[in-house]
Amino acid sequence: MSIFDKSAFKFSHQHRLFRTSAISSGQIVQFKLSDIGEGITEVTVKEWYVKEGDSVSQFDSICEVQSDKASVTITSRYDGIIRKLHYNLDEIAYVGKPLVDIETDALKDVASEEDVVETPAVSHEEHTHQEIKGHKTLATPAVRRLAMENNIKLSEVVGTGKDNRILKEDILNYLAKQTGAILPPSPKPEIIPPLPKSETAPAAPKDKGTKIPIPISKPIVFAGKDKTEAVTGFHKAMVKTMTAALKIPHFGYCDEIDLTQLVQLREELKPLAQIRGVKVSFMPFFIKAASLGLLHYPILNASVDENCQNITYKASHNIGVAMDTEQGLIVPNVKNVQVCSVFEIASELNRLLTLGSAGQLGTNDLTAGTFTLSNIGTIGGTYAKPVILPPEVAIGALGKIQVLPRFNGNGEVFKAQIMNVSWSADHRIIDGATMARFSNLWKSYLENPASMLLDLK
Amino acid sequence: MVIPSSLKNCFQLFYVLKISAAGFKYTANRGLILQSVSSDVYQNLAVEDWIHDNMNLENRQVLFLWRNSPTVVIGRHQNPWQECNLKIMRKKNIKLARRRSGGGTVYHDLGNINFTFFTSKKKYERMENLKLVVRALKGLRPQLDVCATDRYDLLLDGNFKISGTAAKLGRTVAYHHCTLLCSADRFILSSVLKSPYKGIKSNATPSMPALVKNLFEEDPTLTCEMVMDAVAAEYARCHRIDHHITLINPADETVFPGINNKTKELQTWEWIYGKTPKFNISTCFNMVYEQSLLEVKVDIHVKHGRIEVCNIDLPEQWLPPAMCNELEENLIGSKFCPSETTALASALLRICPQNYELHSKWSLLCENVMTLM
């Protein structure tokens, strides 16, 4: 927008003159707002697509104006640089009055006042529907196409076929007369006959000193530009969260879980789940098993204050499930898993997933988590190094389930469904042994789902 | 360069249509009647874009018939927060679209028919198009009292609006489109077209609310199919072309090269919300916290759909000033959108002092600020 308002007109005028005489060879052209039709004399400027100093080409959009329910895109008639915008947003612009000032290259042609219509010498209509002296020209579609491709008006060709039908030969004859040459009948690419042998391959290297021509390499031109944008909104908040997270001394512990029995159990439960109308994935089992483990190792469900002076053991197991959405990574949590059945966890998880994909999760669903599981395996990967989400002290990343060969108790190879888990924990309050024991317990519940029944709360 | 590509695209669509309009080729070049098989508003709006950008309408006219699944469509320069109830729309899965033409906000569902009249800029004539629709309706049911107003609306019985108009003018092509209420859900229409948001100050084009009625209420034997056919027949008669409706699939890249990019663009947040002219919200709301009523004043400036200025005035010391500042600072640059705000607020809660009272106050404040979005 112009920073020189009308009161500073004198200054802007001088400024323009200085530029014109000292630097550029272009002239300032006042581009007037052309007629919009329907007798409209004024419009409101609603959006500018250019600002002063931008360069524009002919037909580039300059601004959007509105008049009585009609939105009009005004395009440039000239190539050049925008020197002045005559209106601010929401101001009334007048038809016939200057809209923008453009500095054009004085030598270039300027488009006429009339709208330029991009058509070749002959438009479609002439080919398909022609009336010459009251008769329609007859020609097959192939002939019409040939005529169009060579910019020939069918009305000017004499037809020698039946009923004065224009034949392919007629078009070719017409062309020959026009250009004095015999043109190829079809637009197929010309087949270049191979050169006679004596001219082709370089002679067998009798003379080893012959130089091999070096190919001329053109400089590789890449027209892409770097793009910088501010980190805002949710991403900005994530920067803060992750910075705080990495202040926590992390240690990692990984293991492999044989889910063969769980896979079978889930298959058996599918019909029942279907009857109840809830989809049951593996996550509800992972979550419930984690909660059972936390009952034995409550320090993993705790929180420390800023200087690590006090530990708070949380009573509720609010287990978070990392979700990939349009916003990015968000972590809704299932509340009070310690009193929920696997089925209830599955229902709640479905509710959170549905809301998450619609972008409708509330703050209640996204806060007060105490422990997190991240099922990165659904996207891919085996082992990971998850980052603890403050104010929690532990997190688990689950890899994808792979079918791998393993040995059973009899030393036989069998097909096993293997998933990897990677835990991270706050080493200030959690030691490796605690994490390992928790992981073993969690693993045993999942490898032998019947054992979960014994401890199920 | 522009010339060969526009010709090529035009030829492709024209060539395909010529084959499917077998036997009508001599008139297909004077005019075309197209009907979309899709009820996806973004795909259908993309067809309008495609025809506007690619077809040569120097001596040709096109009529495009389309219907959409439940959607609210706002005009190019409108403010969705001012025009419709985004909360109800999110709950009921009603889409929001911003069209490229001007004008006001309308509700579409399968009981509403959209007509788009494409012409060269020189032949742009809205009243003629509306008279054509009126003639078609009267031809179908002579007793119908339908007329066009000087605001380019169609009224039933002189009182009820059954059609609204909007238009888009480009460099060489213009289109005029209008709605027609046949059997739309009026209950949902009136609930979604009422904005619950207060305190908005904006220069966006406002809509004029009007009493509406369906043609179906006047004559239950009328169906959308009958009306579409009648208008197509009248169009064919006026432009002396064959009464042949060509069905088109807006997702077909072979007929409409490049159309899927246009569809994608129309669905981006940057287009739908980001193109809202800048506006300010100056309002206050009450919060109840542990039996006390608190008054909160809010001043938010939104530009390109993102928060530029954010001032939240809370009762003194209710929340530590540092926390309130943290919220304001982080909202700046963020999309004016409840899901973005929820995610942001929840992430920030992780790094502030872990105190049940503070957390519940923060959550309460954020939930309330989100009701403005």
From TrEMBL, chain A:
It is an enzyme of class 2 (transferase). PROSITE patterns: BIOTINYL_LIPOYL, LIPOYL, PSBD. Its main location: mitochondrion. Keywords: Acetylation, Acyltransferase, Lipoyl, Mitochondrion, Phosphoprotein, Transferase, Transit peptide. Its cofactor is (R)-lipoate. One of its GO terms (molecular function) is dihydrolipoamide branched chain acyltransferase activity. InterPro entries: 2-oxoA_DH_lipoyl-BS, 2-oxoacid_DH_actylTfrase, 2-oxoacid_DH_E2_comp, Biotin_lipoyl, CAT-like_dom_sf, E3-bd_dom_sf, PSBD, Single_hybrid_motif. It is found in: Mitochondrion matrix. GO terms for cellular component: cytosol; mitochondrial matrix. Its EC number is 2.3.1.-. Residues 138-175 form the Peripheral subunit-binding (PSBD) domain. It catalyses: N(6)-[(R)-dihydrolipoyl]-L-lysyl-[protein] + 2-methylpropanoyl-CoA = N(6)-[(R)-S(8)-2-methylpropanoyldihydrolipoyl]-L-lysyl-[protein] + CoA. Residues 185-196 have a biased composition (Pro residues). Residues 28-103 form the Lipoyl-binding domain. Coiled coil: none annotated. It comes from the Eukaryota. Residues 185-209 are annotated as: Disordered. Belongs to the 2-oxoacid dehydrogenase family. PANTHER family: DIHYDROLIPOAMIDE ACETYLTRANSFERASE COMPONENT OF PYRUVATE DEHYDROGENASE COMPLEX, LIPOAMIDE ACYLTRANSFERASE COMPONENT OF BRANCHED-CHAIN ALPHA-KETO ACID DEHYDROGENASE COMPLEX, MITOCHONDRIAL. The branched-chain alpha-keto dehydrogenase complex catalyzes the overall conversion of alpha-keto acids to acyl-CoA and CO(2). It contains multiple copies of three enzymatic components: branched-chain alpha-keto acid decarboxylase (E1), lipoamide acyltransferase (E2) and lipoamide dehydrogenase (E3). Within this complex, the catalytic function of this enzyme is to accept, and to transfer to coenzyme A, acyl groups that are generated by the branched-chain alpha-keto acid decarboxylase component. This is Dihydrolipoamide acetyltransferase component of pyruvate dehydrogenase complex. It comes from Platysternon megacephalum.
TrEMBL record, chain B:
Pathway: Protein modification; protein lipoylation via exogenous pathway; protein N(6)-(lipoyl)lysine from lipoate: step 2/2. GO terms for molecular function: lipoyltransferase activity. The keyword Mitochondrion applies. It is found in: Mitochondrion. GO terms for biological process: protein lipoylation. SUPFAM superfamilies: Class II aaRS and biotin synthetases. One of its GO terms (cellular component) is mitochondrion. Residues 57-243 form the BPL/LPL catalytic domain. Belongs to the LplA family. Lipoyl amidotransferase that catalyzes the transfer of lipoyl moieties from lipoyl-protein H of the glycine cleavage system (lipoyl-GCSH) to E2 subunits of the pyruvate dehydrogenase complex (PDCE2). Unable to catalyze the transfer of octanoyl from octanoyl-GCSH to PDCE2. In vitro, it is also able to catalyze the transfer of the lipoyl group from lipoyl-AMP to the specific lysine residue of lipoyl domains of lipoate-dependent enzymes but this reaction may not be physiologically relevant. This is Lipoyl amidotransferase LIPT1, mitochondrial. It comes from Platysternon megacephalum (big-headed turtle). The lineage of its organism: Eukaryota, Metazoa, Chordata, Craniata, Vertebrata.
